[in-house]
Amino acid sequence: xxxxxxxxxxxxxxxxxxxxxxxxxxxxxxxxxxxxxxxxxxxxxxxxxxxxxxxxxxxxxxxxxxxxxxxxxxxxxxxxxxxxxxxxxxxxxxxxxxxxxxxxxxxxxxxxxxxxxxxxxxxxxxxx
Length: 128
Known about the structure:
Number of domains: 2
Order of helices and strands: EHEEEEHEEE
Helix content: 10-25%
CATH architecture of the largest domain: Roll
Structural class: alpha/beta
Shape: globular
């Protein structure tokens, strides 16, 4: 059986495209790699992540039911070099941790922030 070659992107549907894109740019430093409108009329923005080929696709689909993200349904995880410094920079922007920091069994330290529309972001400082 053939294997997939690699993960290309993950799609998140949102109610407010511009608010969400701004959050990922301001909080995490992601950059817009491209914008488009699908044949169904969905507005999409692809966000590039540093040091990674995978992208995050943010999508707003007009005339569709409102997005209702259930608690602890899913999250995106990002590695950071220094969690304390990163979270201090977030706090200066008015972004508070929703959980953590917590030391894991592997020696990593993790913390969470809430993105718009209840999507969670995990920040991970790997053990050295």
